[in-house]
Known about the structure:
- The chain is 42% helix and 15% strand.
- By secondary structure, the chain is α/β, with parallel strands linked by helices.
- The protein has a 7-stranded parallel β-sheet, sandwiched between helices.
- Strand 5 (135-140), helix 5 and strand 6 (178-185) form a beta-alpha-beta unit.
- Helix 4 (104-132) packs parallel to helix 5 (153-172).
- The longest helix is centred in the middle third of the chain and has 29 residues, at 104-132.
- The protein is globular, with a radius of gyration of 18 Å.
Amino acid sequence: MNRIHGKNIVITGATSGIGKATALQFGELGANLFLTGRRNERLNEIKKLLTDKHTDISVHTYCFDITNRSACVEFVNSLQNDVDILINNAGLALGTDAVYELSDEDTDQMFDVNVKGLITLTRLISPRMKARNQGHIINIGSTAGHEAYAGGAVYCATKHAVKAISESTKKDLHGTNIRVSIVSPGMVETEFSNVRFKGDDQKAASVYKGFTPLTANDIAEIIVFVANRPEHVNIMDSIIYPVSQSSPTMIYRDE
């Protein structure tokens, strides 16, 4: 059953990877999309892909950085439609440095995007949902939010924060009809590792060598499934691994 048709959905970090795949899959179901990201050319490409294929939906794009609070406020204030679903997808990892070698710049950026940006948009949009007593907030977490690993002190901390924020948000909204969910992927082959290793394509490719990782479409399907449940059903969290992965650090590779 399609419970998504006609819904207004905000997706952050929609220019690539899971965000883009999620936008395309929601478009297939007839959702109206409000897509944010920092790369305007990519946003325009995604909008064209969607509107060329689906003439019955509206697609709006907003180019800004979610670490900029005033830009977030401007974005939310510009929305003329009620937000039915907020997907806090924007996020990144930078480096695999041990805690005693961490870069202040990388640390700040991970917290600013993964935690502060998510909180800002949730803080701005959730009151509108609460006033309507309706809505769904879906935060993209990670298996790193369930189990920490060496070289991931900051990234794991931010994803543990996403889990905590999501659980607290659900409790803050207790007694309302607003749903709060987390989707926690394991290893997904997107631009994630390329960003983490700051453009080192060879190093990024080695992360996925010797096994079949998840794809952005795999995770988008889970996000759509979570969003498409009946209104009385709230999937609080879901952990998704490729079959070759059993924990953030346990990966079986064919040599």
